[in-house]
Amino acid sequence: MEARKNPEYLRSVAQAVADFRDALTAFLELHVLNGEPGRFGGVARGIAPAVFVRDDTDPEELERRRTRVGRAAGLAVSATPLTGIAITVQGIGTVDPIRNWATITQPKPVLEPANILDACDHAIGRLEGLIMQAEAERPPSVGAEAMHPTVWGAAARLWRDGHFRQAVTASAEAVVLMVKNRTGRNDIAETALWQEAFSDKDPQPGKPRLRWPGNPTDRDITTMNAGLRQFAPGVQMTIRNSAAHGIGELGEQDALERLSALSLLAGWVDECELAEAADSGRS
Question: By CB distance 3.0 to 4.6 Å, which of 7, 50, 77, 253 could disulfide with 109?
Fold first, then answer.
């Protein structure tokens, strides 16, 4: 997903900018601005540093706060291209205020503290706007974890490792195993198994059928059984077989759509009733 369309990512960047701003503010507490009344008031503005360390500052505390700012800046710099907070400085060009924060402590500073703090405020506001836009435009999502437990149980480990094709194959085989266990059939190939399980023929000894629950003469029930008779073998041939025998990795979206079809089929299998011949002996 594109970064500026991912609300979670944008929130993390906004938090990183806020943390950087807080760290910089704490760092500035140990300094006086060049131009403030006092010992360093107005010393060679533009040539001397923009800030000077206070006389009573503990060097170790100063270093701790400097380190904190540096680390926070490293996390926050990704906000600049997202928000356009770069500053144009005459004679220098475009400057990233977060990446170049330390210039305020150096001779001929490129930036003033106020430039950086204002840029942070602008970045946070801009990111909040991007978050609202991303959430408004975000398509509905279905997590793989919400699939039928048989499907996700077989796919989970492979899916999390990025092996999407293998995850689909494992899930398809798990759904077939559901039907084998349900019907007691392990004597025919998988596609034939689906065809016989949903066959419109009466059950025979050793050949039970899966039927959608309800009055078999009802038009909706008849339609559902006819649809399952075509859908289930079709899933086997188009999803399981292509995943098992295909070459190369499946994309995550393609794999998710295949898992969705398998999950739907598994749920329907759960809802079906097992119809057996009178003398089958199965309970």
Answer: 50
Residues forming a β-bridge with 204: 207
Q: Residue 141: its pLDDT value, please?
A: 60
Q: Which of 80, 104, 137 is the last residue of a domain?
A: 137
Q: Which DSSP string corresponds to 208-264? A: -EEE-SS-TTSHHHHHHHHHHHHHHHHHIIIIIHHHHH--SPPPHHHHHHHHHHHHH
Q: Where among 122, 137, 152 does a domain terminate?
A: 137
What pTM value is reported for the model? 0.56
Structure tokens at 165: 């094709």
Give the separation between CA 237 and CA 252, rounded to whole angstroms: 20
What is d(CA 126, CA 42) in angstroms, rounded to the nearest whole number? Answer: 34
Q: Residues in the chain, how many?
A: 283
The SS3 call for residue 207 is strand
Exposed (0-12), middle (13-18) or buried (19+): which is 137, by Cβ within 10 Å?
exposed
**Residue 282 maps to a domain:** no
The pair of three-digit structure tokens given for residue 108, joined into one six-digit string = 């001929």
Strands 209-211 and 87-89: unpaired
Calpha distance 14→173 (Å, rounded): 44
- Whether residue 194 sits in one domain with residue 87: no
| pLDDT mean for each 10 residues of the chain (283 residues) | 81 97 97 74 74 94 97 96 92 94 94 96 96 82 78 92 92 94 91 93 93 94 95 92 80 91 95 85 48
How far apart are the C-alpha atoms of 283 and 281, rounded to whole Å? Answer: 7
What residues does 114 pair with on adjacent strands?
Answer: none
Distance CA 116, CA 95 (A): 11
283 inside domain: no
Same-domain pairing of 104 and 184: no
